[in-house]
Amino acid sequence: MANQVDAPNAPAPDVDAGNPESLSFNPGTGNARLELSLAALGFPQFERDNTAERIQLARLGDSGAGALGVRGDRPVSMNSPELTRFARANEFEVSRAPNGQLELSVKANGERQVLTQFDPTMRGLESAQEQIKKMTEGKITEIKERFGVDIARAGDKTPPQQIVRPDGQVRFGRPLESRDPTYRELLGIEAGLNVSEPGQRPGDGRPAVKFFFPARDRFISGGEAAGTYLPDHKGRPVIVWEPNVLKGIPTTEADALERREGNEHQGIQGLTTHETAHNSEINIHNIFGEDTVNEMMGWSKRMVKGPDGQMHPEWSVKGKNGETMTPPADTLATATPKWTVRDASGKVIGKIDPKEVAERALMRPATSYLESPSEMLAEGLTMYRLGGEQRESFMKSSPHFYKLIQDFDQAEMNRLTGEGKNMRSFDGRMVPRTPENLEALRVREDEARKRLGIK
Fold first, then answer.
1. Which listed residue, 11, 132, 312, 320, has the most CB atoms within 10 A of its CB?
2. What's the whole-model pTM score?
3. How far apart are CA 444 and CA 321, in angstroms?
4. Which pLDDT belongs to residue 386?
5. Average pLDDT of every residue of the chain
6. pLDDT band for position 11 (50/70/90)?
7. Hey, which bits of 377-429 come out as E strands?
8. What is the DSSP string of 117-172?
9. What pLDDT, on the 0 to 100 scale, is given for residue 22?
10. Residue 110, CA distances (Å) to 179, 257, 412 in order
């Protein structure tokens, strides 16, 4: 079963052709938001297939005449088409350095990072492109070795495409061709894995997660998703990103300019943390049992007859007044699904939206994205692991769920890295469980509670 995350809502970067000294493709300048579906976005990068140019220019190794035009000493200005296409494809910011050279940079981890400087000529641009290629290859190797994950490359095939029928049922189509990730995407994924460790490592002997970047076609065809976690594809879990979904959003959470309710995490880092949390979910289920975990989070189960005539479990959120709230079965095909409310006797008494479910839930969730126990758990782990303001927001909105997620997270670390060896710092990193680190966590949590006015 696919698990989806909130989809980013950010305008595509525009070229400022009128300013010869500044050409910005920095995704952090967009008013990036998270919504429940791509259907509600209405931005060009999600309404048409504009991937072909990006694939051609971003693919590693495209530094020949076919990608850059005539080589040589021909001058390259800030607005040269070759530079503009290359920067747009890779989401680089272009600026002129004090020494007269051009430089490429990205915004990540809350600061602008200069990647390379080059002479303002075609030969200089080719050299910069080759350097970016080497940096990208190095980052891929670093991520794979450090976190034990795998990253699909151009031409690799994704799992079979998932096609959502009008009734919400999913059938499987063809595998899709992958593209290479960009350097900026890798920085966001690395930041997500930094705070997810060891969640990307299955606790049942399977290999760690593999990331896929479909080149053109949607993976969830007919449904709305930003990323999809599949627990088993050829013996390993995988995460598949929808085409263009990582384009135009902040690289990390520190790069986001603003936050609002329903917009708690909105960068590549947050999306990666959420999808990786679905892998942690399986590890946690293996420790406590799936039904037990769901019930601990305030869900109740009843058996209902499905379209196939067989009995299936139906999970509902327990309300503060004895009511239960049940999500629709076709959330993949519905942008704004309504939940069914039943009173304590089981009688249907109305329909409400997910935001109201979060308000009425006996155990308040970390965010209003809780279409299933799976998503409630993944969002809780995400807000907890991102640290900083996300963790503080979680502490304030749902202190009881915060403590439960803390226990789940620690249990996973104990199982995968050894009993009592590691812990989660307030900033989200896994660190050794020492008296010093425990005291630092206590101080940070106490300071946050005092600042937030909670006990």
1. 132
2. 0.84
3. 35
4. 97
5. 84
6. very low
7. 422-424
8. EE-SBHHHHHHHHHHHHHHHHHHHHHHHHHH--EE--TTPEEEEEEEE-TTS-EEE
9. 39
10. 27, 10, 29
CA dihedral 128, 130, 136, 139 (to 10 degrees): -90
Beta bridge partners of 313: 303
CA-angle at 268, arms to 196 and 62, nearest 5°: 115
Q: Residue 344 has which token pair?
A: 């304590």
Query: Would you say 263 and 34 are in contact if contact means Cβ atoms under 8 Å apart?
Result: yes
Check: CB of residue 368 under 8 Å from CB of residue 398. Answer: no
Q: Each residue of 195-223: pLDDT tens digit?
A: 999 999 999 889 999 999 999 999 998 87
36 has pLDDT over 60: no
The angle at the Cα of 408, spanning 403 to 412, to the nearest 5 degrees, equals 145
| Cβ neighbourhood burial of 185 (10 Å; 0-12, 13-18, 19+) | buried
Answer yes or no: is pLDDT of 114 > 70. yes
For residue 150, give both structure tokens: 């795998």
Sheet containing strand 93-96, edge to edge, reads 22-23, 93-96, 102-108, 111-118
Both tokens assigned to 202: 């299955």
Q: Name every residue whose Cβ is closer than 8 Å to that of residue 48 and which is 6 or more positions away in sequence.
A: none
* Residue type present at position 448: A
Three-class secondary structure assignment of 77-119: CCCCHHHHHHHHHHCCEEEECCCCCEEEEEEECCEEEEEEEEC
Closest among 102, 88, 90 to 14, alpha carbons compared: 88
74-90: buried (b, 16+ CB within 10 Å) or exposed (e) per residue? eebebebebbbbbbbbb
Confidence of residue 105 (pLDDT cuts 50, 70, 90): very high
Task: Tell me the CA end-to-end span of the chain in Å, nearest whole number.
Answer: 39
pLDDT above 90: percentage of residues in the chain: 70
Cα(297)–Cα(318) distance, rounded to whole angstroms? Answer: 9
pLDDT score recorded for residue 262: 61
Comparing CA positions, the residue from 357, 268, 368, 260 lying closest to residue 316 is 357
Show the tokens assigned to 19.
Answer: 């300013």
Digit-coded pLDDT (tens) for 233-284? 999 999 999 998 999 999 999 998 776 666 788 899 999 999 999 999 999 9
Per DSSP, the residues of 428-440 read S-EEE--HHHHHH
Letter for the amino acid at 223?
A: G
Neighbours of 171 (CB within 10 A): 12
Distance in angstroms (rounded) separating the CA atoms of residues 14 and 371: 35
Q: What is the largest CA-CA distance in the chain?
A: 80
